[in-house]
């Protein structure tokens, strides 16, 4: 006789609270423009971290070219804010320790390439 692997309903306990509370946070569906804009900001932040400073420098030069004191003041503030070290961004980076990972190409002990 075959045993049914499906649990019987009387043996499964279901709490009303567990049905109402979801571990997944509420998600917002974005339109295409909002999604691509947010994704672009993430890519700029993660893959091109110096881009923000370069844009601030560009704005600073443009402000000087306009001779507008308000634009110059705002561009100077923005550039100073980005280039001033804070607790998050120390003035001098710590010496990086080289750690070999499994993705690194192994170095031959004899110094020759064996193929």
From TrEMBL:
Give the compositionally biased regions (Polar residues): 106-115
Mostly located where? nucleus
GO cellular-component terms in the record? catalytic step 2 spliceosome
Composition bias of kind Low complexity appears in 82-97
Enumerate the UniProt keywords alphabetically: Nucleus
Which is one Pfam family of this protein? Es2
Identify the stretch(es) annotated as Disordered. 1-24, 82-115
Q: What segments bear the compositional bias annotation Basic and acidic residues?
A: 1-16
Q: Where is the protein localized?
A: Nucleus
What PANTHER family does its record include?
Answer: ES-2 PROTEIN - RELATED, SPLICING FACTOR ESS-2 HOMOLOG
- The protein here is known as 15392_t:CDS:1
């Amino acid at each position: 006789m075959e045993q049914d692997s499906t649990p019987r309903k009387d043996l499964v306990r279901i709490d009303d609270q567990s049905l109402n509370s979801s571990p997944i946070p509420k998600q917002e569906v974005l339109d295409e423009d909002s999604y691509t804009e947010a994704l672009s900001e993430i890519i700029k932040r993660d893959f091109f971290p110096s881009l923000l400073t370069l844009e601030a420098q560009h704005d600073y030069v443009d402000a000087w070219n306009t001779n507008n004191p308000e634009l110059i003041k705002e561009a100077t503030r923005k550039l100073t804010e980005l280039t001033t070290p804070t607790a998050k961004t120390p003035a001098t980076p710590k010496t990086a320790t080289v750690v070999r990972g499994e993705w690194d190409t192994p170095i031959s002990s004899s110094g020759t390439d064996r193929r």
